[in-house]
């Protein structure tokens, strides 16, 4: 199993990265990232909206000073948030992220969502209605992404949470092709059709929420997470692996890269140790059978947005 996947622009992305969503304020982000670097992580999935890029940057700088890594060893992703979809704002926000992280460039810059909010709106304008929505088309946002690429502030550009029709629309107008679409994927939400669609267009899929664990886990009507499945624990015992390692191995074997998140040193160490076993066909069949089309991150509050991505099948 390869530890990196080629992108359509010639660069490579490590197949496993550490997600940083909701790892802020309450936790010591700097030490979490330092530990992850020591554990072997070289791919960090960041975003302006996560409010922790400064801490990520401090950890990177410390490990470079310690001669543990060089900047070129790392693959750093960040994303432009929904309030900043105007062409000129796209580069402005990337420059802000670079200042926060004390970097000259990122490896990958993504449009976080196809939906846009007004610059004066809240970052997540729940209950504010359509007045909070921007009329900026994500095609304009893509031009801003291309500007960032041309200026050398990012090596690659891509999308997140875009559906098939939105991706094709980007491709029809793009000067530079997106290299990635980052979407929710886990065994209970396999996204096989969208993954195949992206594969046919030489776009890599990056999977967030790979364990099917979200903020509503454990609440009424929320689907049980895959890593609590007794059968997957049984599969893990066959290989002397945890259920989480089985799930990550399975997703990577499908040609995806994955960005699990944890604040636990034990889990962080565990998640990257997935390259020394191969699932037997019957185990893959079981994991395939787990799909229930259970989407966790629905952004349901913004279903009336013109560019809401989840109205169609994929």
TrEMBL record:
Pfam families assigned: Aldo_ket_red
Sequence positions that bind substrate: 112
Ranges of residues in domain NADP-dependent oxidoreductase: 16-291
InterPro entries assigned: AKR, Aldo/ket_reductase_CS, NAD(P)_OxRdtase_dom_sf, NADP_OxRdtase_dom
Superkingdom of this protein's organism: Eukaryota
PANTHER family: ALDO/KETO REDUCTASE
Name assigned to this protein: NADP-dependent oxidoreductase domain-containing protein
């Amino acid at each position: 199993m390869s530890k990196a996947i080629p992108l359509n622009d010639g660069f490579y992305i490590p197949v496993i990265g550490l997600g940083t969503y909701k790892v802020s304020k309450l936790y010591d982000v700097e030490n979490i990232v330092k530990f992850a670097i020591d554990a072997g992580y070289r791919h960090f999935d960041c975003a302006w909206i996560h409010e922790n890029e400064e801490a990520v940057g401090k950890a990177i700088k410390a490990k470079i000073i310690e001669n543990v890594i060089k900047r070129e060893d790392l693959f750093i992703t960040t994303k432009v948030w929904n309030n900043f979809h105007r062409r000129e704002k796209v580069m402005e926000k990337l420059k802000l992220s670079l200042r926060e992280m004390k970097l000259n460039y990122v490896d990958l810059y993504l449009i976080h969502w196809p939906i846009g909010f007004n610059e004066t709106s809240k970052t997540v304008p729940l209950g504010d209605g359509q007045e909070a929505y921007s009329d900026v088309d994500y095609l304009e946002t893509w031009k801003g992404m291309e500007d960032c690429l041309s200026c050398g502030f990012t090596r690659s550009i891509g999308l997140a949470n875009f559906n098939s029709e939105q991706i094709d629309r980007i491709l029809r107008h793009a000067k530079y092709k997106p290299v990635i679409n980052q979407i929710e994927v886990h065994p209970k939400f396999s996204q096989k059709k969208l993954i195949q669609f992206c594969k046919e267009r030489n776009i890599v899929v990056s999977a967030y929420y790979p364990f099917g664990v979200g903020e509503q886990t454990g609440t009424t009507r929320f689907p049980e997470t895959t890593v609590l499945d007794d059968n997957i624990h049984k599969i893990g015992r066959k290989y002397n692996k945890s259920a989480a390692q089985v799930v990550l191995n399975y997703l990577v074997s499908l040609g995806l890269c994955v960005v699990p998140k944890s604040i636990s040193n034990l889990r962080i160490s565990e998640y990257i140790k997935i390259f020394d076993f191969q699932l037997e066909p019957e185990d893959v069949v079981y994991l395939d059978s787990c799909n229930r089309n259970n989407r966790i991150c629905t952004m349901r509050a913004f279903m009336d947005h013109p560019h809401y991505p989840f109205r169609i099948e994929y």
